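Hello Y.,

Per our agreement to keep a running log of every chain we model this quarter, I'm adding this entry. I've kept the format consistent with earlier entries: sequence first, then predicted structure.
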Amino acid sequence: MGDGSTLEPEGPALQDLSASEIESILDAAASFKKSKTSKALAGRVATLIFSEPSTSTRSSFEIAARRLSAEVLGFSTASSSLLKGETLLDTIWNLEAMGVEYFVVRHEVSGILEELAPRTKASLINAGDGAHEHPTQALLDILTLREKKGALKGLKVVIVGDILHSRVARSNIHGLKKLGAKVTVCGPRALVPSGIESLGAAVSHDLDAALSGADAVNVLRLQLERQKENFVTSLPDYYAAYGVTAERLSKIPGCAVLHPGPMNRGVEIESAAADGPQSAILEQVSNGVLVRMAVLALIEEWRSHAG
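Predicted structure for the entry above:
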């Protein structure tokens, strides 16, 4: 990766970035608060290939590309040749032959971009792959925390919910640990994967204990669509044990509340907590555009330097 001023085209994965590289992305994102548009991608064509549903990630990537002056090619997997059996690689090759240089990809298969990236000259940006990583979501989470709390070093961050199926949790752990934060994951035993401690996170199954002294809590939804068995006894039981409520937050008034979305109100978070004074959820959404602008602009910088 080099000195952190640019990004290689198949990235980023938070697992592979250094602390200085992460800080460079955050600084670039922050700079777009002052200058909301740029000609960085003028003359470039980008397309978004999402084989899983998305609102905020897809929309913010499209807004980001347009603010950087890219032409955005509309693409729908539901009306594409992917449904006729065409492989994702052939789809990318065909669109690349038409002049598409940036592909923002969300896919259900973990690690798929690492397989595809060496086989195309285009830049592939990870918008979430299976249960592996969601790097730009973690970057916008971290940017939001940096704005709310200052330096990340020494912060206590709790990630609560469906850790087992969460690419957001994994990317956040990688990024937060590299910047010196202390991370605790919390959830039912069945939803906390064995070995998660190897990533540097502490594990708790008691939310109230985990939240004691926390600077921030990142609330994950139950990914029922990925669960092939019953991991919780019932949704009311889950909410009672792991729901982030205004009452719980009242005991930690300095704790910022984050949620990567989409929210299931009354399942993992109470509306009074999601919409309350400790919530930074809408700031996360705004920062998503800035982070994705930074990633695209830095990749373009890398491409220019690489010739």
